[in-house]
Amino acid sequence: MSQNSSGKDDQASGSKKPISLPISRVRLIMKSSPDVSSINQDALFLTTKATELFVQHLALSSFNNGSGKETNSLSYSDLANTAQETETFHFLTGKNFKGFMLLFQIYIIETQP
């Protein structure tokens, strides 16, 4: 949970990267709230990890319930339908869904080999 000696908070020390989302982007999103004055590094790491796990959960649920299973793909409509049809994801509407899609796209880009 600590930063490596070079100060790069987007990479964990060691050979295995514990998170895929860029911590700096999550920090930027958190700081955009007028209620946030400072962000503890542990809270930032945990928020980033929780966001990543949530993105994975929604993606897997959308894939399993979506139309792209035959073609091994996931579309925007699969994600939107899952958000509308599954009670757990009902809060992802309007602006919340657009913001989430941005995080989802960042996650996809960061996890590509």
Automatic annotation (TrEMBL):
Origin organism lineage: Eukaryota, Metazoa, Chordata, Craniata, Vertebrata
Domain Transcription factor CBF/NF-Y/archaeal histone, first and last residues per copy: 20-60
Protein name as annotated: Chromatin accessibility complex protein 1
Primary location group: nucleus
Pfam families with a match to the protein in the record: CBFD_NFYB_HMF
GO terms for biological process, alphabetical: chromatin remodeling; DNA-templated DNA replication
Subunit structure: Heterodimer with POLE3; binds to DNA. Component of the CHRAC ISWI chromatin remodeling complex at least composed of SMARCA5/SNF2H, BAZ1A/ACF1, CHRAC1 and POLE3; the complex preferentially binds DNA through the CHRAC1-POLE3 heterodimer and possesses ATP-dependent nucleosome-remodeling activity. Within the complex, the heterodimer with POLE3 interacts with SMARCA5/SNF2H; the interaction is direct and enhances nucleosome sliding activity by the SMARCA5/SNF2H and BAZ1A/ACF1 interaction. Within the complex, the heterodimer with POLE3 interacts with BAZ1A/ACF1; the interactions are direct.
GO cellular component, one term: CHRAC
Species whose genome carries this gene: Oreochromis niloticus (Nile tilapia)
Keyword entries, A-Z: Acetylation, Coiled coil, DNA-binding, Nucleotidyltransferase, Nucleus, Phosphoprotein, Transferase
Top-level taxonomic group: Eukaryota
Cited function: Forms a complex with DNA polymerase epsilon subunit POLE3 and binds naked DNA, which is then incorporated into chromatin, aided by the nucleosome remodeling activity of ISWI/SNF2H and ACF1. Does not enhance nucleosome sliding activity of the ACF-5 ISWI chromatin remodeling complex.
PANTHER family assigned: CHROMATIN ACCESSIBILITY COMPLEX PROTEIN 1, HISTONE-LIKE TRANSCRIPTION FACTOR CCAAT-RELATED
Residue ranges of coiled coil: none
InterPro entries with a match to the protein in the record: CBFA_NFYB_domain (IPR003958), Histone-fold (IPR009072), Transcr_DNA_Rep_Reg (IPR050568)
Subcellular location field: Nucleus
GO MF terms, alphabetically ordered: DNA binding; nucleotidyltransferase activity; protein heterodimerization activity
